[in-house]
Write a structure and sequence with these properties.
Shape: globular
Low-confidence stretches: none
Radius of gyration: 17 Å
CATH superfamily: HUPs
Oligomer: single chain
Strand order of the largest sheet: 3-2-1-4-5
CATH architecture: 3-Layer(aba) Sandwich
CATH topology: Rossmann fold
Largest sheet: 5 strands, parallel
Number of strands: 5
Mean pLDDT: 93
Length: 228
């Protein structure tokens, strides 16, 4: 068994990634971020997932990215896009892209790895059914691993932290199927960008999630606004 750090937002992809790492027998240290996002509903889901698995440690990092005013996740002045054609999602970089977010999160996770003697970071990034984010692409992770090789103690000592993205080339339906196979608590996860009492069913994240469950042949167990 080796120790790994798992980025856990509380969403579908990160929860399935956590379940995947646990199924491999990894000793998991989940890390989540309170970064000035529009709502904390997803972070609450992350805490529930950690409780479900009875993990001993859950690192929650506080940082304020609210100065990033050009995106819908940290600025209340930018509207979350709703009702887009599912085929258009991923064709451009949407307003829900938070500048450099995965660079920041992975950097903090890498520091945690060096602090707790973990050798890998697991991240639930997906480059197939995704929202057009540049920091969810294979070439980004390859470049970031190179940064860790030359910019960290582990790296210069020949034991660099590696970035594992097990869902990178899977469709959202594949992610749902894997989650079901691993008996991950998908009913505890939260994907909606709007953070209301029920998922909106109209934002890009909800649309991709609903598409994934439908194509996988399963009903999504979370509640949506309206009749879904």
């Amino acid at each position: 068994m080796s120790k790994v750090v798992v980025l856990l937002s509380g969403g579908l992809d990160s929860t399935v990634t956590l379940a995947y790492a646990l199924a491999l027998g990894e000793e998991v240290v989940p890390i989540s971020f309170r970064y000035g996002q529009r709502h904390l509903r997803e972070l609450e889901a992350a805490k529930q997932v950690v409780s479900h698995y009875r993990l001993k440690q859950h690192v929650v990092v506080d940082m304020d990215l609210s100065a990033y005013r050009t995106n819908a996740l940290t600025s209340p002045e930018v509207e979350v896009p709703l009702g887009r054609n599912i085929h258009d999602i991923g064709g451009d970089i949407p307003t829900t892209y938070v500048p450099a977010r995965n660079i920041i999160f992975l950097s903090v996770a890498a520091g945690l790895c060096e602090s707790v003697e973990a050798d890998r970071i697991y991240i639930g990034a997906n480059a197939v059914d995704y929202s057009g984010y540049p920091d969810c692409r294979p070439e980004f992770f390859q470049a970031f691993e190179r940064v860790l090789e030359v910019g960290t103690r582990r790296g210069v000592e020949g034991k660099p932290v590696r970035v594992i993205a097990p869902l990178l080339r899977k469709s959202k339906a594949d992610v749902v199927r894997l989650g079901k196979e691993l008996e991950a608590p998908l009913e505890l996860t939260w994907s909606c960008y709007r953070g209301r009492a029920k998922a909106c069913g109209q934002c890009d994240s909800c649309l991709l999630r609903l598409k994934g469950f439908k194509e996988a042949g399963y009903a999504d167990e979370i509640e949506y606004e309206g009749s879904r």
